[in-house]
Amino acid sequence: MEIKEEQDRFVLLNDENQEIGEMTWSNAGEKMMIIDHTFVEPTYRGQKLAEKLVYSGVEKARREGKKIIPLCPFAKKEFDRKPEYGDVLRT
What range(s) does the N-acetyltransferase domain occupy (predicted)? Predict the structure, then answer.
């Protein structure tokens, strides 16, 4: 499995280099990311892959000094469950 960053999204690739998931965001100004969508193909669910996609967004925000608004229900749940993401959560 590999996560690759593209324009406004992280793509999850399987070992055959096929796209099996994604997390997308919109930039709201220079200091804000809005995570609006997280998806993993049903056959790959239950492996914490969506969590890894959201974590990639958190790491990107930390690197770039941005805050995140998690509009996607899955991303919002991740932020609610993981207080360690509080440093990038826009409150």
Answer: 1-91, 2-90
φ and ψ at 18, to 5 degrees?
-95, 145
CA distances to 30, 31, 48, 65, 71 from 51, rounded to whole Å, are: 25, 23, 5, 21, 15
Q: Beta-carbon neighbour count of residue 81 at 10 Å?
A: 10
**What domains sit in the chain, N to C, each tagged with a CATH number?**
2-88 (3.40.630.30)
Residue 91 pLDDT: 83
Q: Is the pTM of this model over 0.85?
A: yes
Percent helix, percent strand, percent coil in the chain, to nearest 5: 35, 35, 30
20 with 40: CB under 8 angstroms? Answer: yes
